[in-house]
Amino acid sequence: MALLTMGCDWRAQPITMAMPFTLPAPQTQRHGHSEEEHMKVWIITSWDMETPSQGGDVVNVQTRPAAAYTAVTTNDTMVSRVEHPAAGYRKIFETCEELAEPIPAQVTGRIPSWLKGSLLRLGPGLFEVGDEPFYHLFDGQALMHKFDFKNGQVTYYRKFVRTDAYVRAMTEKRVVITEFGTFAFPDPCKNIFSRFFSYFKGVEVTDNCLVNVYPVGEDFYACTETNYITKVNPETLETLKKVDLCNYISINGVTAHPHIEADGTVYNIGNCFGKGATLAYNIVSIPPTQKDKSDPIDKSKILVQIPSSERFKPSYVHSFGITPNYFVFVETPVKINLLKFLSAWSIRGSNYMDCFEANESMGTWFHLATRNPHEYVDVKFRATAMNLFHHINAYEDQGFIVVDLCTWKGFEFVYNYLYLANLRENWDEVKKAAMMAPQPEVRRYVIPMDVHREEQGKNLISLPYTTATAVMRSDGSVWLEPEVLFSGPRQAFEFPQINYSRCSGKNYTYAYGLGLNHFIPDRICKLNVRTKETWVWQEPDSYPSEPLFVQTPDGVDEDDGILLTIVVNPGAALRPAYVLILNAKDLSEIARAEVEVIIPVTFHGMYKP
Ligand SMILES: [Fe+2]
């Protein structure tokens, strides 16, 4: 039935654009601190620009290193230092050709000798078909990128994934399958009678897997957020087969952010139809490689079901948290109106974006489920309204669950600001639009595992190192207030990464992220989540992507490793893009490998050793 194949979690990624500076005159208490201490205070206290503190001295930002954008300073802030008047960022939203074969990259610096794998990434590469444009950032057709590292040399290769959406668009020379923000009109060659019926046939769910790639057993799958994932060959980038997850589990779609445990078990979440045809969320698992070499997807299963705050309106879900004993699901007020989805879409020609709406009163609901046994924890954890795309990490400590998130304040959908027409505007217009958008903030929430009714009115959090609180109210719900880890006006720390193999689900220290300046990606950031110290890599007119952490083989410290990011520098006529290798300790440059082609925006990916 059509409902079950709707794939209700769509794709997504906030891509952001940044803004320049004019550093917002930060205010702080200067007296009584040494210069170093002073800087620290500034970092910790001055970022919430919506409510700047009053009465302190203004820090003279000119005294900080200004021009050396590549230099990285501890105790610095993560705000962008550059403007983009030339609007070079437009280049990352332009169609490019795939490559017939891998091309060599010119290396500057020294590629670590132990780096012998592939960086795999996905993003849109075809932004129009003939004269029919795609409208939204998440609509362009999936292009898979690969940088290979071998013996200190680097090559680059890319290929469009042969999804049905892509192949049919190429064949029919028009947009055939409706994308996130682009409606596919019926074939104009059909007569009006058959066109009418094609509206009623319902929705063909897209398989345009432009968001991420991850391993399942010994295979690799490119994905979006619908029920379709696409098996690819990570060596040749060939498309192998399309898999419909609805054939294995009761799910409308799953996120592009599964958690993958050391043994290879894959966990994911998606909305589904629960009891009485009401909406719910299923946490699902796919086991590791099977001894008999059978496809692990055959053994996919549902572990636990989490109820929805609204019967017929699931929330948009982009990622979730996992600890050794819990699943953490944050249900935001960005809702998918299923009735609108069913009627508006097939009859009036709407797209996925038209089916989102905000629930202005629910705030945000935090849900927990235990992992052994798999059971829903029936406690009402509540917080203010937010958009949430990316969990950074979650862990258990002394009876509490710490949940670190890249949030956006309020219930208005951030994706409303990610239409390509907006992102391709001149810099002043980009900034103006972002001023209207929800504001980003990195937050730490802490959830008490053990809640007792008699503790009403008290702060239940006794972790010594956080200011996050949880207070039980008279109705039995527990109100969560976060500790802010970073907040800069229109300056997002997004696309977060950690030393995943070592720290996922565990107490940790470092998060890495892509800095969005008014939604434009223009820097790489590192955040010490314990001390709030920060580091930044940035160069003028340069547009990086999500930084992936790769641990040094003999690494001891959590941040013994490198970051891999693809950077586009449109002004460099000869070699306008490169893969950048940064030392994860201090974000200093280790090497870059430049190619003679532009590389369009990429969202997520992985390092395959
Ligand atoms: Fe994402």
From TrEMBL:
It is a lipid-anchor. PANTHER family: BETA-CAROTENE DIOXYGENASE (PTHR10543), RETINOID ISOMEROHYDROLASE (PTHR10543:SF57). Fe cation binds at H257, H318, H390, H604. Its EC number is 3.1.1.64, 5.3.3.22. One of its GO terms (molecular function) is beta-carotene 15,15'-dioxygenase activity. One of its GO terms (cellular component) is plasma membrane. One of its GO terms (biological process) is visual perception. Keywords: Cell membrane, Hydrolase, Iron, Isomerase, Lipoprotein, Membrane, Metal-binding, Palmitate, Sensory transduction, Vision. Its main location: membrane. The keyword Transmembrane helix does not apply. This is Retinoid isomerohydrolase. It comes from Albula goreensis. Its cofactor is Fe(2+). It is found in: Cell membrane. The keyword RNA-binding does not apply. It comes from the Eukaryota. Belongs to the carotenoid oxygenase family. Binds 1 Fe(2+) ion per subunit.
